[in-house]
Amino acid sequence: MNTPRIKTRLLLSALVVFATALPAQKKKDKWKIDPHTKNDPKKMAAAGYHNFGPFKFGNLAADPVQSSDIDKTLPFLQIIWIETDHFRIGTQLPAWSVPTAAPIRKKIRAELNELKKKLPKINPKTRTLTPWLRAHLTAHRLEKLYAETQELFGVTDDQFPKKQSDVVPGPGKTYMGYGPYMGMSDKYLVLVIEKAGPYRQYMEKYLGRPTYQPQRWHFVDSSSLLFTCTTESNEFPLKHDTALHCALAFNVSQNLLDGFRYYSYNLPVWIREGFSHWSSRRVSIDWPNFDQNEGSVADMKRETKWKQYAKGLINNTKKYATFPEVAKWRDFGDITFNDHVMIYSRIDFLMSMGKDKWKTFLFTVKGRVDENWAVNEKDLVGATREALKKAYNLTFLNFDDKWRAWVKKNYPSR
């Protein structure tokens, strides 16, 4: 009988294939090696990185999803995964040539100089942002946004409970949510995919939403908040690096606001949208973002000079909603373009009075609980009225008068 020989030949063939495939496999996976740290744990730690995956990345229903699961779903993509102190990040971005325009070149060079302190091999004068360099920039921008937001909210990491079991109501204690990440139990998530097709595939499988639109999402079971987008979009073109940076600032800042002292209810839309505009426009005024609902397309214009636009509009009260109307909005679809500009300006006005007042305002309207620390989301309009009075000595009736006077004094005309 020849059966043993056949078995031996099959085994040898398999070994030969494996031996020849190994170098090819190593070459194929070369992109997974970060050229700036060489995946050295010490260098990664110095950069503020915990690992390059795999790690938990949300849920599918109640089941945890790993970054490796997403890799298997999209095997043709080279997704770079990075876990930092407060984020788990996936980026699949092409190389991007730094423009010769001075403002953008100056911005990128300043960021790369900041990164060089953590990753010494970086060349701040590089003319090309490689996929790995863009991943590092994304991680750097997100952690910087997190630190700036915490400073703005007047909090530090050690003020939040390390785990839900640490949350015990009691006299003299301040409710801070249910976890260490601004009150959430798990880290904030960001996933950016270049092409719309694979992005839609991710959205349909893991979020059940076959859409090309950018998406913020709450994974209730893991207590984490996601922002995900594709850079290939007609409505929100994000191929330009600064455009993507603005989108991250807009959406992740809103996730941080939502997650602050735990995400148990939505703040009034003027606060959420106005704060997102304010955060994004600190990065650049040239790439505005807008929230919209499935049933209503955002009222968008290419106007970028919002301060001048607001000043020109300020006396024409028929062209934008008054604050008593704004305070009652419950839907992003209620917001016209003029109102987007004006709620940004109202938040800018509140921010101009300092971080302490903003902290008082925020702690009054966000994270509301009763004496037993059960969620209290009743009468958020009344909570806003209370917060404005307590923090700024403003009322619904005098808010616009004070704000208009400030705009006329502080905003440029051209």
Q: How would you characterize this protein structure?
A:
The structure is a single chain. This protein is α/β, with parallel strands linked by helices and 414 residues long. It folds into two domains: 33-263, no CATH class; 264-414, no CATH class. Helices cover 44% and strands 10% of the residues. It has helices at residues 3-28, 41-46, 67-73, 102-116, 131-153, 196-207, 241-259, 269-281, 306-313, 323-326, 337-351, 355-365, 380-392, 399-410; strands at residues 56-60, 63-66, 80-83, 87-92, 96-97, 128-129, 188-193, 215-219, 224-230. A hairpin with a 3-residue loop joins strand 3 (80-83) and strand 4. The protein starts with a helix and ends with a helix. The relative contact order is 0.08.
Question: What are the defining features of this structure?
Answer:
414 residues, alpha/beta, 5-stranded mixed sheet, two-stranded antiparallel ribbon, 44% helix, disordered N terminus
